[in-house]
Amino acid sequence: MRGDAIGIGLVLALEAASWSVGSPQVPGGDESRRSTVALYDAGEYAEACPAIESLVDAGKPLDGPMTYRLFFCRRQRGDARAAETLSLARTRLEQELPESADLDVPFYLVNALQNLEESAEARRVAEKTLASLKSGTLRGPETPAERFRLAKLHADLGLDPEATSLYAEALAGFEVVGRATFRPYVLWASRWIGERALDRQDWPAVDRAFSALAQSNDASVYELDRLAVARSRLGRFAEAREAWDRAVKAEPATTDRARYCARIAELAAELAPLPQTDPTSERRLGDLSKDELEALLNDQAEAVRNVRREAAATKRLKKKARQQLESRMATAKSMFVAAAYEYALDDFPIRETLFQAGLAQLLFWPQEWQVVPTPPE
């Protein structure tokens, strides 16, 4: 994820000709300015623009952070002036940097430099900012938004443990003041934490991060899938199915994986606990390769066919014989579902594999698991 994809502040829509490239007068205590920034912080970019224009019309020029916000807003709207706005933001932020007392100016300057693809200079500014914080020449974070900014500066430098901790502190603060008040910050921090947790396979952390996105209806289909994977790894099959079902509803035409996974999770919830090892090699299912899992799936399908053949060869099944066949069928079903689940969680092509091998009906047709199957309606 790129550092500018979340615009962290509010954007001012004003004519470039009205700006002064020098040191603009910033109405720091102006209520109209604060309310405009609040709109930007909440991600309400379209609503913020008229308010910002009124600030400019009132003769209140923009400082560096506000000019960067204007750039972001213009870029969001596809405004052709976004590039020149970014250049002006960079100029103003560099002018203000020596006198800056908090994180606003260096934070937005780093973002501007990243958007200008000047990564080395962005890194230099970020490193100098952290050094100034350590020496006490720059005021440390006092609000959740400032903790967020400090977290991103650490993330920009690859300091992931520190960034994770600071993002978590920022999210806790946003919960107190209201998530909607700083919605873009919350989305960014949650996604950042979730992605790093995925890299570590820290499933509880993945669950927390992407559950927050799902609760606010901001999770993408990919994030819903990762949330379902995390819940599956934690043995919460019914909740995993709920996440995959939401993915299907969000994009019904493109979510075959989610549809298959939701059905596997539903069966897993019915059959839990699932077997954890390959009955032949006694190896953990998670240690099996793609080919080995496919072989295990085919073995269970053959076991089903054998049960049916034996049942069909007997004119009248006695109770004990039927119970034995049903037990074998149940064993095959549990192993098939366990292998299919592991296959899906390992991100192998579950839909394509089952469909091409003629095994999809074992998921979607309950009668396939009957010793003497009834014809489908």
Give the helices and strands, then pairings:
Layout: H1 31-41, H2 45-57, H3 64-76, H4 82-96, H5 104-115, H6 119-135, H7 144-156, H8 160-177, H9 183-200, H10 203-215, H11 221-233, H12 237-250, H13 256-271, H14 290-313, H15 319-345, H16 350-356, H17 361-364
Overall description:
By secondary structure, the protein is mainly alpha-helical. It has helices at 31-41, 45-57, 64-76, 82-96, 104-115, 119-135, 144-156, 160-177, 183-200, 203-215, 221-233, 237-250, 256-271, 290-313, 319-345, 350-356, 361-364. The longest helix has 27 residues, at 319-345. Mean pLDDT is 88; it is low at 1-29.
Structural class category:
mainly alpha
What is the 3D form? elongated
> Helicity, in percent?
55-70%
Outline the biggest β-sheet. Answer: none
Using the CA coordinates, give the radius of gyration: 28 Å
The proportion of strand residues reads: under 5%
Number of helices: 17
Q: Number of DSSP strands?
A: 0
Order of helices and strands: HHHHHHHHHHHHHHHHH
Question: Uncertain runs with pLDDT below 50, 5 residues or more?
Answer: 1-29
* Mean pLDDT metric: 88
Question: What would you call the quaternary organization?
Answer: single chain
